[in-house]
Amino acid sequence: MDGQLGFNGENSLVPHLLEGFLELGSPNSSASGSERKKLMISSVKGGGMMSAAIDNLGSLWLWGNFPEPQKSKSTENEFSLTSSCNPIPVWNFHGHTVVKVACGNEHVVALVTAGEGYKGSNLVCYSWGGNSHGQLGLGDRESRQYPEVIEPFNSVFPWSVYEVSCGAFHTALLAQRSPSDMLESVCWTFGLGDNGQLGQGTTQSLLSPEPVKELPRSAFLISVDCGLFHTSVVSSAGDVWSWGMEKGLGLCPEASYSGGDAGDAIYPLLIPCVGRYGPKFPEPVQVACGAAHTILLADAGYKMWSWGRGWSGVLGNGKMIDCYSPTMALWPPLDADFRGQSLKDGDDISSKEKKPEDVIELEKKLSMAAEDVRLLQSKLSLMERYASILHGAIFGKPFEEQDMPASLRSGGSFDIAKEWENMLEASDRGKLARLEMFYRSMLAGIKDKLLKKRIQEIFLECQSPLPSESSQ
Fold first, then answer.
1. Among its keywords, does the record have Coiled coil (predicted)?
2. For the chain, which residues make up each domain, given as ranges?
3. In whole angstroms, what is the distance from residue 34 CA to residue 102 CA?
4. Counting C-beta atoms within 10 Å of the first and last residue's C-beta, which end of the chain has fewer, N or C?
């Protein structure tokens, strides 16, 4: 609708090629198309209603509903958003290399080389766009139409920025001390903080970057990402911290479920790794935040963990319910586990067709087994959703493994009357009161349905025709 897909301004259910990246010259170039360099995209980012890309020449492109920078600073320039269905190059950094970019709802933050080439640590942090909450980190709330340097991260500052991420109205940066022999890194945040997404111990907004002091300085942070109202970072040692909105959804499993702000974590919380991998996640690669969920890529890229809101199946674990602690995503898909490897270069198709009969039979059995597992997982997912709805309605929190009766966990016989008596005996006054309320509400609903059914029956009896005289 606002051009964020990069072609004709209309919605699309299928991928489209973005033609604007086929070639690029300098802003004043008169070179013909054949003389211009062909482009490849090295990285892409998505914001609220905009998209951004960096090509292999180090140029930045924006499209959608975005703040288009002016070519020169002028006091007459007023802030506005531009809508474009086609990618537009940002010429303000011509002669430099854009290395990283992030975008929020109305603001953009870019890491750009001080000189023409990238030497690994010579990055300057620029920001522009909407600044109603200080998300540009420039010390005020005035929006910018053109890129400005975030002064703590200029070319002479002792901290060198290497990662950047934007939430809807807040920003997070990772920086390391430079030059230094120690791998010391710090997460800096600024912008909107009403849900604790800045990790500063308050819900106040920040107009300038401040370090997140509760993170250990000994941990070298390798990835950061911002959701709408929360932030997550991961260290090279496999530790993951999160803070912001929805404390109960993955940020802190023992969170309370009452109160208006009970879901906010204003300080970084260490996320435990559950299962045989704990307490750290092995070989972490990247952390990514959605609107209200988090995904961690670890184990050198072979495993994924996810937690948070599970609507629409965004957690990738075969369920559509919320997860309050990290669970392993179903990766690779089951059918990929048994799929044969593709032919190597030079292999003959006929050689593939000459498989021994026992191999063909084994592949057939494995495929059938995979199908059975998928069916069982689908049924299990439905049963878990049903149990979670009932458990949540009765006890006010989602169903978890520790809530399962001991007799079921051990695999023995299950006496439902005995387990019900044990549950009532172990419940405190609050749980018993909630259970009584649920029972009374359910009983009232049943009586109401019975009454409606009886009224319908009486109405139908009154509408029935009287018997005719001949039939008497």
1. no
2. 41-70+78-328, 358-458
3. 32
4. C
- Among 437, 410, 434, 411, which Cα is nearest to 423's? 434
Q: With contact defined as beta carbons under 8 Å apart, do 309 and 318 qualify? A: no
Give pLDDT tens digits along the chain (472 positions). Answer: 565 665 666 666 556 566 655 555 444 544 444 445 567 899 999 998 999 999 999 999 999 999 988 665 655 567 889 999 899 999 999 899 999 999 999 999 999 998 887 776 778 999 999 999 999 999 999 999 999 999 888 867 778 899 999 999 999 999 988 665 567 789 999 999 998 999 999 999 999 999 999 998 888 999 999 998 899 999 999 999 999 976 556 554 444 434 444 457 899 999 888 766 677 898 999 999 998 899 999 988 888 999 888 888 888 888 888 887 888 888 766 544 444 444 344 444 444 445 677 777 777 778 777 777 777 777 776 777 667 666 666 666 666 666 666 666 665 566 777 777 877 787 788 778 877 887 887 788 888 888 888 888 887 878 766 555 444 4
E strand residue ranges, 117-261: 123-129, 144-149, 159-166, 170-177, 185-191, 206-211, 221-226, 230-235, 240-244
| CA dist., res. 212 & res. 201, Å (int) | 9
- Other CB atoms within 10 A of residue 430 CB: 10
Q: How many residues does the chain have?
A: 472
Eight-class DSSP state of 273 = P
CA distances 435 to 198, 257, 396, 416, 421, Å, are 39, 17, 10, 17, 13
Tell me how far apart the alpha carbons of residues 247 and 372 are, in angstroms, rounded to a whole number: 37
CB distance 167 to 104 below 8 Å = yes
Give the C-alpha separation, 80 to 464, whole Å.
Answer: 70
Please measure the distance between the N-terminal and C-terminal CA atoms of the chain and give it in whole angstroms: 71
Identify the CATH number of the domain defined by range 41-70+78-328.
2.130.10.30
The answer to whether 394 and 423 are in contact (CB under 8 A) is: no
